[in-house]
Amino acid sequence: MTGASVTVRDHRCSVGRIRCSDGRRPSTTAGHRWLALRVQIHRGHLIHVTGSPTVQESAAHLVAIEDGALVIGDDGRILFSGAYADLPAEYAGVEIDDHRPAFLLPGFVDTHIHFPQTFAGDAYGGGQLLEWLNACIFPSESRLADPEFAERAALEFVRRRTAAGTTAAMVFGSAFPHAQDALFEQTQRAGLRIVSGRGIQTVGPDSAKPLISSEADALRLTKAEIDKWHAADTGDVATALLHVAVVPRFSLSVTTGTLKNLGELYDSVRGNGVYFHSHLNENNRPGTGEVDSVKQSYQVETYLDTYDGKFLPGSQVGGKSFLGRRSIMAHSVHCTDGELARMAETGTSIAHCPVSQQFLGSGTMPWRRTIASGVNVAAGTDFGGGDTWLISEVMSDAFKVHISEPGDAAISMHPAEMLFTATLAGARALDMEDRFGNLDAGKEADFLVVDPAGWGPTAAAIDHGIRSDDPEMARDQTLFALLMTMREPAISQVWVQGRRVVAP
Ligand code: GUN
Ligand code: ZN
C-alpha cells in the first residue's frame, strides 16, 4: 500500500472500500497504486448555524443548502461543506452517499440528562420537584445498586440517545461507580461523546439513603472516576470523546463540607478539562420550594453563591468556586440579574429544560432576560424530569413556552435560534465549540441524516406545508417545520467524528 504518501487529490476510495488510483476496482495489485486514506461525501439538504455567533446573531448565520455536500476526511474532520455544485474537483472520483431529499443537520447536544432516570420517564408521584424526588426519583435511582440493572440501564440509555440523535451530552450520573463504568463503556462502544460524573449526595431524606455516601467517600469516588474515565479513550482531552464532571446533585443534597472538599478537588483538576454540573434555581414554590429551601438552609443571599464558593452564612466565602466555562447549571429558571451576570462573567452555561419545567411545575425561564445577560443558554431534556429524549422536541416546547411568556417578555423564537440552542450552544456549553456544533469545514463531523420519509407528520409538513414566496422566509419555515415535527423515526443515521454510530 502506498496510502501514506497519497494526497487528498489522489483519493478514490469510499466508505468501506479501497480502490486503485485509477478508480477501478483492482483484481490484482500489479501495476496499481493502493490508496489507504478514505474520504466520504454525504449529499443532502444541509442546514446549520455557521461560525461562532451569539444566539441573537444566529439567524444571520443560518446556512441552508438544498443540494449540499459534506466531505469528510479520514481523520473524521469536515474538509468541505457547501453546495454540491461547488464540490472541489479533487473529490470528483469519490463515491457519494446520496441522502437527498433528506436533511443533514449537526448532531444534537443535550446539556442535561439523567442516566439513572432512564426508566423513570413516567414517574408519577404527586407534587412538584422535591416531592417527586422523594417519592419517585430517589427510589428509582437506587435500583442501579444492582449491577445487572445498571448494565441494562446503560444499554437502554445509549440506545435512546442514539435514536434521538444526541451526539454529545452532559450526563448526570448514577451514585454507583459500577453503573458509571457501564455507562462509559457502552457510550465508548457506540462511539458517542459524553461528559458525565457520579451524582454526589452526602445528605438527604430516607428515600435517598442508598444514594448517599460519606464525605470521605464522596471525594474518593469522584476522584477515582476522574482518574479512570477522564479522556480514557485517547489519553488526551483535546481528542477524547469521554470526559468526566464533578456533579453534586444540588445544594440540598450536600453539606458545606462537601462543597469545600469538592471545590478543592475541582480546583486541582479543572485545568485538565474536567467539568462541573448541577441544578440551580429550578423550582420556587413559595416556602417549601427548592430555591427557598437552599437559601434557608445555607443562609445565603442567592442560590448561585453555594456553587460560587460563598456557601457560608451571609454568603461568606468558604471555599473555591465551581463556576467557569466548563460548568453547566441546569434550569436556572428563577435567577436574579446578579446571578445571571455572574454566570456570564465566568463563562458558565445554562441547560434550559422547558419540557421538564412544565412537568414539574417549575415555571418558565425568562428567555429574553436570560439571553440579554450574555450567558450561554443550551438545551437539555432533563430526562426523566422531561419525558422526551429528543432535543428538537425540547426546542419545540421552548418555542411554545416563550411565545406564551407574559407581556413584553413574550418572544417568537427564530428557527435559527432554536437550531443554535440545540447544537452550537451545546458545544459551547461543553467548551468544545472548536470541535463540533455545526458543519463548518475543520470541525469533527458530528451530524444527523434526517429523513422526513421516516416520520409521517414531518413528511407531511415538509412536502405540503405553506411556504412564503420570500426564499429566506421559506427557508426558515422549512427549518421550523422540521424542528417542530420531527421525532426519532425521522433520524435515519447518526455520525460522530465521521463514523456511523451503531447503538448496542
Ligand atoms: N434537582 C435535584 N435532583 C434533581 C433531579 O433529579 N431532577 C431535576 N429536574 N431536578 C433535580
Ligand atoms: Zn435534572
Q: Give the proportion of residues in helices.
A: 25-40%
Classify the secondary structure makeup into a structural class: alpha/beta
Number of domains: 2
H/E element string?
A: EEEEEHHEHEEHEHEHEHEHHEHHHEHHEE
Return the CATH topology of the largest domain: TIM Barrel
The shape is globular
Query: How much β-strand is present in the residues?
Result: 15-25%
Biggest pleated sheet: 9 strands, parallel
> How many beta strands in the DSSP annotation?
16
Alpha carbon gyration radius: 23 Å
Top keywords for this entry?
504 residues, Urease, subunit C, domain 1, 2 domains, seven-stranded mixed sheet, 14 helices, binds guanine, binds zinc ion, metal-binding, hydrolase, guanine deaminase activity
Describe the protein's topology.
Blueprint: E1 40-49, E2 62-72, E3 78-83, E4 96-106, E5 108-114, H1 129-142, H2 147-163, E6 166-172, H3 177-190, E7 194-197, E8 199-200, H4 215-229, E9 242-248, H5 256-269, E10 275-280, H6 290-298, E11 327-331, H7 337-346, E12 349-352, H8 354-359, H9 367-372, E13 376-379, H10 391-403, H11 415-422, H12 424-429, E14 447-450, H13 456-464, H14 471-485, E15 491-496, E16 499-500
Parallel strand pairs: 1-4, 5-6, 6-7, 7-9, 8-9, 9-10, 10-11, 11-12, 12-13
Antiparallel strand pairs: 1-2, 2-3, 4-14, 14-15, 15-16
Helix pairs in contact: 2-3, 4-5, 10-11, 11-14, 13-14
The structure holds guanine and zinc ion (ZN).
Guanine binds at residues 114, 129, 133, 137, 249-250, 279, 282, 356, 382, 385.
